[in-house]
Amino acid sequence: MKKDFSVKTIVAIGIGSAVFVILGRFAVIPTGFPNTNLETAYPFLALMSALFGPVAGGLIGLIGHTLKDFTTYGSAWWSWIICSGLIGVVYGFAGRKMDLEHGEFTKKEMITFNIYQVIGNAVVWGLIAPTLDVLIYSEPANKVYTQGVIAVVSNAVAVGVIGTLLMKAYAATRTKKGSLSKD
């Protein structure tokens, strides 16, 4: 699928952001550590990023997380909002070699995507988000780096399991490239 900035992509950004908000508000599992949950929004973000590319993924993460924060807390926590946009970009780049739109999601693609997403989650949530918390909000380092480690593990597992299942299910609904079926 060509991942340009079409009307379809713009609509996907709007709908994707709205779904991100809903999942981020109502489909989370608390980890027991303050403001750190197992999020179902990130597996969905991985699917949308793989389908529509890094720019769309970044915007869905950025817009969706901003709206989620304002509707949940009344204000925005910009360090983690920025990181939701960054992880959407990472997922989009990781999904560039896949062709989910044409029913392709091989075992090799699953493994490759998951290697990239685990590394991306480690850098974004384990390093960038806590560092921004310290720099922007003067948060205690031990607290935010602990949150970061929890976010790395929970997001990597959620995307690895739920995200992979979403991508596999989506690919299974699409007509395979080269089939005799009409598109």
TrEMBL record:
Claim: Cell membrane is one of the keywords in the record: yes
Principal location class: membrane
Subcellular location: Cell membrane
Top-level lineage group: Bacteria
Alphabetized InterPro entries for the sequence: ECF_substrate-spec-like, UPF0397
Similarity annotation: Belongs to the UPF0397 family.
Residues spanning the membrane: 6-28, 40-64, 76-94, 115-138, 144-167
NCBIfam families reported in the protein's UniProt record: PRK13661.1
Family matches, as Pfam families: ECF-ribofla_trS (PF07155)
Keywords: Cell membrane, Membrane, Transmembrane, Transmembrane helix
Species: Enterococcus larvae
Membrane topology: Multi-pass membrane protein
Protein name, as recorded: UPF0397 protein I6N96_03415
